[in-house]
Specification:
With about 450 residues, this protein is an alpha/beta fold. The protein folds into 4 domains: about 120 residues, Response regulator (Rossmann fold, 3-Layer(aba) Sandwich); about 170 residues, Rossmann fold (3-Layer(aba) Sandwich), CATH 3.40.50; about 80 residues, Helicase, Ruva Protein, domain 3 (Orthogonal Bundle); about 40 residues, Orthogonal Bundle (Arc Repressor Mutant, subunit A), CATH 1.10.10. It is about 50% helix and about 15% strand. Helix 2 runs parallel beside helix 3, helix 5 runs antiparallel to helix 7 and helix 17 crosses helix 18. The radius of gyration is 32 Å and the shape is elongated. It starts with a strand and ends in a 5-residue tail after the last helix. The structure holds adenosine-5'-triphosphate and magnesium ion (MG). Magnesium ion (MG) binds next to helix 7.
Amino acid sequence: MAKYKVLVVDDEHLIRWSMERNLTKAGYEVECVDCGEEAILAAESKIVDLVLLDIRLPDISGLDVLEKIKKFNRDISVIMITADDAVTTGIACMKAGAYDYVIKPVDFEELKIIVEKSLETASMKSEFMRMRHEQAAESQFENIVGKSKSMQDVFRIINRIAASDAATVLLQGESGTGKDLIARAIHYCSARRERSFTEINCAALPETLLESELMGYEKGAFTDAKTAKKGLFELADGGTLYLDEIGEMKISTQAKLLRIIENKRFKRVGGTSDIDIDVRIIAATNLDLAEAVREGRFRKDLYYRLKVIPVELPPLRERREDIPLLTDFFISKFNREFKRNIKGVTAKARDLLIDYPWPGNVRELKNIVERAIILESDEEILAEHLPHEIRNKQILIEKTPDIQIDFPDNGISLEGLEANLLKKALDMSKNNQTKAAKLLGLGRDALRYRMKKIGLLE
Ligand SMILES: Nc1ncnc2c1ncn2[C@@H]1O[C@H](COP(=O)(O)OP(=O)(O)OP(=O)(O)O)[C@@H](O)[C@H]1O
Ligand SMILES: [Mg+2]
């Protein structure tokens, strides 16, 4: 096994000599320097696992050296050596980021134990961090299911976005299509993953609160501002800021947001000095932003700025091949969660799930599987376990009256019959397509498709 490397920093020759001797004997590789300047150089340019640092050096104070080394490499362990046994000195060392401190004259047995412990902690910490990152990245992608071509395209784009550091991303898609999930995956797979993922729902706060939440404020900026407060832009510095439901943001806030994105700097509310930030913005909306721009509800310039990298999440009804896959995925997820052992869905239930138009998209499917697993005790999910709106079609087929028709000699047209029924349903529902579709056991899209076919729609 490779030896740990210890850097000894002390201006007294005798101490350097005895440290080197004792630590080499204990199995470490040792390098010695006699001033702060050289210590910083050595810690920055070489692989060093641990630094034993004298607090009083001829050139720079040991505490300053500690700070510089830590800035460069957070994970390096530093143990301070001090001639002064005042508690305050020890506290100052720990506050500045030292792992521990020893008091001169150094007791080598004690030092060896501290060195060992600190290296153990550091290696556990780095192993833990490595595992956490791997898990985070893996679980992010494992949790996104989709084999349809449109989802495969989405995966390709988000992989590329995560690998690059392109500033802004716009996620568009109906409610429940997975925008939150994708936003997180982008963050945790990007180089920013060690920094924070901060999110805010732009629709949840009134305009003035949203601004102070985003930009923070100075003491006295308004009546309640008793102390200054950092905004989310500052808190997200170096990381990702997820602006959910951006379509609901008021025009005046949009203007401010655009300026911040373009200048990468802003002022707190009531503040005078600029604060620089490096934040990746991921914005999401389930509205048609292009339409909002046409109607003057969303700023065109901000729209184009956000849309540099657009990601379109397709509704579930346009990728029906993902439905069985997602169903199985949620069954095993909830089996684990609720300690159940449901094997799958029956063929009939699966067909109903595939046919249903899923206005609530993946979220709706997930909820339905969860409900079935909690409530039902069969081994499989049966058609009867599914909610009424999904079984509707089956119920309608079963309940459709046996209409008696006397076929004329030259027959009748099935299409003509369909057209008549369609018109009748639209009449009865006073042209409300959703209601008419329900009467016919169709989704709204299917109804519109049939209306087009017979010329009732452009
Ligand atoms: N492709 C997918 N694979 C697995 N789970 C998914 C997928 N898409 C969405 N989900 C799950 O569906 C639920 C809804 O997804 P999410 O919250 O990301 O939707 P959204 O687009 O942000 O919706 P809204 O616009 O309503 O906020 C979540 O529990 C999410 O984990
Ligand atoms: Mg969402």
